[in-house]
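thread from #wetlab-drylab

HS: before we spend reagent money on co-crystallization trials with adenosine-5'-diphosphate, can we at least see a predicted complex? here's what I'd submit
DV: go for it
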Amino acid sequence: MISLAGRDILHAWGKFIFTGVGLGLLIGVTLTMAGVYRGMVDDGKVLLDNSGADLWVVQKDTLGPYAESSSMPDDLWRSIRTMPGVAEAANVTYLTMQVARQSNAGDQDVRAMVVGITAGEAGAPGWPPQLVAGRQITRGHYEAVADIATGFQLDDVLKIRRNHYTVVGLTRRMVSSSGDPMVFIPLKDAQEAQFLKDNDAILMQRRRTEANPAFNRPGVPGLLDAVITSQTGNSSVNAVLVRIQPEFSQEEVAEPIRRWKRLTVYDRAQMESILVGKLIATSAKQIGMFLVILALVSAAIVAFIIYTLTMDKIREIAVLKLIGTRNRAIAGMILQQALVLGVIGFVVGKISATFAAPLFPKYVLLTPVDSVFGFFAVLAICVLSSIVAIRMALKVDPAEAIGG
Amino acid sequence: MAGKGIHIEGLSKRYGEGDTAVLALKDVNMHVAPGEVVGLIGPSGSGKSTLLKCLGAVIDPTAGRMVLGDEVIFDDAWKVRDLRALRRDKIGFVFQAPYLIPFLDVTDNVALLPMLAGMPNNEARTRALELLTALDVQHRAKAMPSQLSGGEQQRVAIARGLVNRPPVILADEPTAPLDSARAMAVIRILNDMAQRFQTAVIVVTHDEKIIPTFKRIYHIRDGITHEEAGEGRSFD
Ligand SMILES: Nc1ncnc2c1ncn2[C@@H]1O[C@H](COP(=O)(O)OP(=O)(O)O)[C@@H](O)[C@H]1O
Ligand SMILES: [Mg+2]
């Protein structure tokens, strides 16, 4: 027996390729959407991996530092480090803001996550684990390591709030959970950028403090200065990153910090569930909606194409039935054509998604699992959408071939 | 192959029920011997197509008896279970329009039927080529139907009707679209093939050019058949 579906496809191959490519672009968009979601999840994981921490110590009852703002004194890390099982503890600040590059052609700004890292050496929690160019920060001020996704280059001068920084190193795939590239600067500078008030505000506050008789007491010299210093100091950080000693479990270290320091502590798994389950949950639903819509549109297109291809063959189907072709063979012919369309569409979609993924501003991660799932979803959609055409073909009366 | 050709007795067909019922066939009696070609002639609405559909097992007759070869296929009810296989194996159809399958080449259009009956592809194609040769279209064996002339298409359609060596061929206005030379050629082919394969052939026609060629003619009027002798003129 010859393949009726195959012969029909060869006969009308232009039509099949053309609609297959159209369907393929739609499937490509669908795969890319799934890749955008995977990319978001991966960004979150990379963020956690790159922080080099086992535990995140944050302000009590917050989901900080990535999902909610968290603020805590910058001297707590010392006492955390002395807790049992703690190998290393380091302050860190995170602030997403516009970072400007100064150039002759005028300033150009990029949205970035500015990370304040403690003075120390490479490998400390919070530090970028690897550089693709240049060196790590060695001075306590005015040096920056930027991710290449910012577009910055070595020796560029960046402006973050009032200060200028020289780019000394470059990283790759150091991004925030929303995909913004990171810029690392020394902690002190970062604290200033985050918490420092502008000069006018400081001046106003100083006037208010001076005018307050409780602080400005003639009999107590130095009180006013002390109060003002404490008001204008920048002594907060967003979190303390903790690396634990290998012989301790995460919970063994976390529990005493919760109890004695009155802080909230997250381990890696909890942090991941905050990022994936809360921070990007809405975006994930949004993408899910798009996936559903795209699946419906693809199904409608396949159904329509298969329906019209079948409509064009009503006469031939009546003849085939009259000369004794079984319903099964006719249904099989339509089904096979739908599946071929689906396979062409999937191949075109997979190729177009693979080529398009790097062009997206945020990370698009195409996983083999999604491809396999997508492939079977496409086949399922094709089977379902050929049902209408099959039903119509089965209703064709062989008597129609004989005519009136 | 064919035993007794076609035998029809007291066949009737009613469309619909009650007030709207149409008695399209009232009393049809026909006999066509193996190797014989008979004409079926009648005005529009007389029941010709209905009769072909009953014989072709695509609609159910209401009552009567039909025998194909030595098999009683209908006796007030169908006596064969698989009407599809009956159509495939016992009845060859030739239509007014050739209705070839546009996506199969000439050979496979013909070979499809034996393939459907389970014959291996090569054997089916060999048999198709034999018939195409007999019908003098073997040179177009690899062509697609759209590349053929009307006469060539009709010959391919006849080959398709014959390929399973059915005891019966039902031809519905097979010469309508053809000029008189081609129409005569088709009738000659049908006669040759009937002789060669001992097939009983019924040709439904209006075509004045070919009516004189039949030795026997059935007239049908208001669903009732009357037999009469034809001129049986030579078609050469
Ligand atoms: N499907 C049908 N339902 C009801 N009446 C029909 C149907 N087909 C044919 N008829 C009626 O049966 C009669 C015979 O029709 P038909 O067999 O087509 O005649 P012919 O082919 O000789 O022109 C006509 O009166 C026609 O209206
Ligand atoms: Mg008719």
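DV: The first strand of chain A starts at residue 55 and ends at 58.
HS: ok that's useful, forwarding to the group
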